[in-house]
Specification:
Structural class: mainly alpha
Distance between the termini: 48 Å
Order of helices and strands: HHHHHH
Strand content: under 5%
Number of strands: 0
Helix content: over 70%
Largest sheet: none
Length: 142
């Protein structure tokens, strides 16, 4: 019974999508805690606090996605450059989504959740096929 359970867990954890979502869930908690701390406790305006929190979680997210989710052993510098380009895009998208949802009355938390849903979908494909892909499977480099 224990071997069957271990085997099932191993098969599930063997999926990069499962690892990506688990790591992403943890990183989301780090990001939203930083946003709450910066905006609610320190009183930093939302359009400033959102990218500050998002960028502060950069190292945690990159490292965990690289090591745990995609088990990449490619050179770090090229993947950091690609990841940085994606982070710039995601920062702008996240800031805009959070701000718009807050302005229309949904609140910043709902805006953050909406931004995370959107970025989670496109980031999986970007990470798998561009940021952490082996050089022979990637279609373009930064």
């Amino acid at each position: 019974m224990a071997n069957t359970l271990r085997g099932a867990i191993s098969r599930v954890w063997g999926s990069s999508a499962v690892r990506y979502l688990a790591v992403g869930g943890f990183c989301f908690l780090v990001d939203i805690a930083l946003l709450w701390f910066t905006h609610e406790l320190l009183g930093v305006p939302l359009p400033v606090a959102t990218p500050v929190a998002f960028l502060a979680s950069f190292v945690v997210t990159y490292t965990l996605q690289r090591v745990v989710a995609f088990a990449s052993d490619n050179r770090v510098a090229p993947s950091v450059a690609r990841y940085t380009a994606l982070v710039i895009f995601n920062t702008l998208a996240t800031t805009g989504i959070v701000w718009v949802v807050d302005q229309i009355g949904g609140g910043w938390i709902l805006g953050k959740i909406a931004a995370v849903v959107a970025t989670t979908v496109w980031n999986y494909f970007a990470y798998r096929h561009w940021v952490f892909a082996s050089p022979h499977t990637r279609s373009s480099d930064v």
